[in-house]
Amino acid sequence: MEIRAARRTDLARIAAILEACRTHLISQGIHQWDDQYPTRVDFEDDLASGTLFVGLRDRSVISTIVLNEHQEDEYREISWEYSGGRPLIVHRLLVHPHQHRRGVASQMIDFAERYAAKNGYTEIRLEAFAGYPASLALYDARKYRRAGIVQYRMGCFQCFEQRVSPPVPFHL
Description:
By secondary structure, the chain is of the alpha+beta class. The protein contains four helices and seven strands; from the N terminus they run E-H-H-E-E-E-H-E-H-E-E.
């Protein structure tokens, strides 16, 4: 899978993936996202700030991830174990439902971890909807630390954190 910075021409496909994800989650009784969040405007803002990335398979966008330094106000309520450094925050990880169980989300998180190491971040922080077991299992399996719960309009979200391993130098 190729991962690259998003382009304006990707926005229509991202909107389609978002709608497919919403429909899929609702069919499973998971009400994580609605028509108020996330929106196409959120992704347009992410694109404009250079923080939106897409995963491609066979030249077609199948996933998205946003990587930036924006922490919600609710993050102040969390007792982060890894603090005092420069955290990278993961937002809006979407994988088209037709691509589920193919390792796409893990590859997107692999990318986030490499991006963090390359760009001098010391830790990664994110939240996952507490009512979506597959999402929680992804971060548990990757040994992310559960740091606490925050409450948003749509429900409870589990906060996770992970230290960033510095890149390993390559020597000939």
